[in-house]
Amino acid sequence: MHESVMFPVAYCQRCGSTQLAGRDLDASGAWVHRCVRCDHQVEPPDRRFSVTSVTALGYTFDEDDGGCGGGGCSSCASRSS
What we know:
Mean pLDDT: 82
Number of domains: 1
Distance between the termini: 31 Å
Strand order of the largest sheet: 4-3-2-1-5
Structural class: mainly beta
Number of strands: 5
Shape: globular
Radius of gyration: 16 Å
Helix content: under 10%
C-alpha cells in the first residue's frame, strides 16, 4: 500500500487510545463516527495517519492480491451469474 494513503483516526474513550475511525448511521439515520476496534461512538476524526502510523497502532494490511479468500473476485460464491 502506498505511503500517501491516509486513514482517519480519532481518540476512543472506551479503548483509551487513538484508533481508526469509520462512519456509520445511528438509529435516527444521522452520520456518526465510530471506533473501528470497539464500535464506540467517537468525535469526528481530526487527523489522518499514514500506513506506517496506522501499523504502529497495531493494525495490519494484507498485501495479497488474491482478494477474498485468495481466489480473487471470480471465486466469490455470492457473485451474480
